[in-house]
Amino acid sequence: MKEKILLFIPMYNCEKQITRVLDQFDKEACSFIDEIIILNNRSTDNGEQVVTSYLADHNIPTAVKLMRNNENYGLGGSQKLAFGYAVNGGFDYVIMLHGDDQGSIHDLIPYLKKGIHRKYDCLLGARFMNGSRLEGYSAFRTFGNVVYNILFSIGVGQRVLDLGSGLNMYSTKMLKDRFYIRYKDNLMFNYCMILGSAYYKHSIRFFPICWREDDQVSNVKMMNQAVTVLKLLGSYILNKKAFIEAEHRDKAVDDYSAETIVEEIYSE
Ligand SMILES: Nc1nc2c(ncn2[C@@H]2O[C@H](COP(=O)(O)OP(=O)(O)O)[C@@H](O)[C@H]2O)c(=O)[nH]1
Ligand SMILES: [Mg+2]
Questions:
Q1: Cα 205 from Cα 162, distance rounded (Å)
Q2: What does pTM read for this prediction?
């Protein structure tokens, strides 16, 4: 049976960039993707109208849905929602690509072509490895990230080449038991995922990506996050089981849900 792949785009206040992300989905990329969902995390800009008119004017060669989260669940919450959607929809894999056009789906395509995704639980885009390209990143920020990668590598006992880029692919097999559901709902969700994956011994393959920052606005509050992330790693090292079982959210959400705003079915 042919494998089924979902791609989701978390979107939050990136009306300027989202059309460039959608432009990436040409015939080649879409030949691997059975459905794209754009998850509007209750943006306060016009992202939703921008996507709606883009979809009216363009024919993306696969099924596309624009959805709106019932609450702002944060980036982590949006990922949980998409993971649930993928598992419930019978998808074999789920790919995340950020909506603010910092990365490109085409960095992943060669791996899909070769079937490398089938050999691992997840393929994680890495901004800081041989073959990666960074544009518009300060030396300080790059250095900080590399240091954190090293700290995490030591903490989990395996090479970590990125703690959370905006281009990742997961097998739904590893997501079925929802091990991630109590992880942080904010931008730190992916740090938790790395720790969880180390604990459960998921097989991870990092792959180099190009990542750019030109007109995007990062919402990461660097210093604040740097400290919180260290605490997270520290608590994992001190007591792994307690970390894995803990509630990491500020507010527990019973059901990460969204309503469908636009649905486009593609027929050749
Ligand atoms: N900051 C933020 N981003 C979100 C949220 N929901 C979805 N996103 C998307 O998540 C991606 C990453 O956020 P961003 O602030 O650019 O972080 P950074 O690129 O890691 O510095 C972007 O594509 C956002 O559109 C949210 O609640 N907050
Ligand atoms: Mg960004």
A1: 11
A2: 0.96
